[in-house]
Design brief:
This protein has one domain (2-280). 72% of the residues lie in helices and 1% in strands. By secondary structure, it is mostly helical. It is built from 9 helices and 2 strands, in the order H-H-H-H-E-E-H-H-H-H-H.
């Protein structure tokens, strides 16, 4: 096997990255225990899911590093998990505002700005959408569809792969890989667009709950787990990343991507522990915020 033929620096690198993965898992377990004890039950599972994104991706990347030809399965597993995390992040922002009913009362006359990334950041002429129960339903549906259809498309890809009809790096129009990748890309953009719309509206209100650093960590995971892997795979497909027997260019590209992800997800796991472990004050009820100006006017 490839790992058996490593020289001393290679073994040291493998051992270091594996140790970083184990530390990330232990940090997450300790954080999960803290969240389970200190966070209200309504938010507990959602925050644990979001904190688990980086350790899970680090673990799948570690497996892909030791077994390079398993890269397709490890990438699919990480993609399915993160699809669920995207939906959970949107739900977390709604929960942090006090829930759907409280959020509708806080922004009773407000509007969503839909001219935001990654889909419509340049379309400034788009109308603003009133914040209603129906609008929230469509936002949640936009992330929920990704959490549902991504596993279905992954299952379809594996079925086609077992029949030798699906090749990850064969992006010809006649092959299914191109069309499945395009569908996954479109579903991903819609899900990220919904999260961006919600974040743009609640970022000022939830600034006291560090929503901006949390959103930044979430964005880093999106970029590193999707854009970075896509760029490396494109370089490997074009043979810009040279082969290193017994590994081909494509397998070596996957191998390099997994090593980078282990280091990056380790850092994100440690930073997430600091960001999510802080104690935050609950937001004031919307009734109190609305009544304050009238009380001040009645004061002689």
């Amino acid at each position: 096997s490839f790992s058996a033929g490593l020289d001393l620096p290679g073994r040291f690198l493998f051992a270091t990255l594996t140790l970083m993965t184990l530390i990330a898992i232990l940090v997450f377990i300790e954080e999960a225990v803290y969240i389970y004890r200190k966070i209200p039950s309504s938010k507990r599972s959602i925050i644990i899911w979001i904190n688990a994104a980086a350790p899970v991706i680090s673990t799948t990347s570690c497996i892909g590093m030791w077994i390079p030809r398993s890269g397709m399965f490890t990438d699919f597993t990480a993609g399915i998990f993160f699809a669920i995390v995207i939906h959970k992040f949107l739900i977390m922002m709604i929960k942090e505002c006090g829930g759907q009913k409280v959020l509708l009362r806080r922004f009773e006359n407000g509007h969503f700005t839909i001219s935001t990334g990654p889909c419509c950041c340049c379309c400034l002429c788009l109308p603003r959408v009133p914040i209603t129960r129906k609008a929230l339903f469509w936002l949640k549906l936009s992330t929920f569809q990704f959490a549902v259809f991504r596993p279905v498309l992954v299952f379809l890809s594996i079925v086609l792969w077992t029949n030798d009809n699906y090749v990850v790096y064969n992006l010809s129009p006649k092959g299914p890989a191109l069309w499945i990748s395009c569908i996954v890309g479109a579903l991903t953009l819609f899900a990220l667009w919904a999260v961006g719309i919600m974040f743009r509206k609640v970022r000022i209100l939830l600034k006291c709950k560090n929503i901006i650093p949390k959103f930044a960590l979430y964005q880093f995971i999106v970029i590193l787990n999707h854009l970075q892997i896509t760029i490396i795979n494109m370089l490997a497909t074009q043979k810009i990343i040279p082969c290193a027997p017994p590994l081909s260019s494509t397998v070596r590209g996957s191998y390099i991507a997994h090593q980078l992800l282990i280091m990056e997800m380790f850092l994100i796991t440690v930073i997430s522990r600091v960001v999510y472990r802080r104690k935050y004050h609950d937001l004031e009820p919307p009734e109190c915020v609305a009544e304050e100006p009238t009380d001040k006017k009645q004061t002689p």
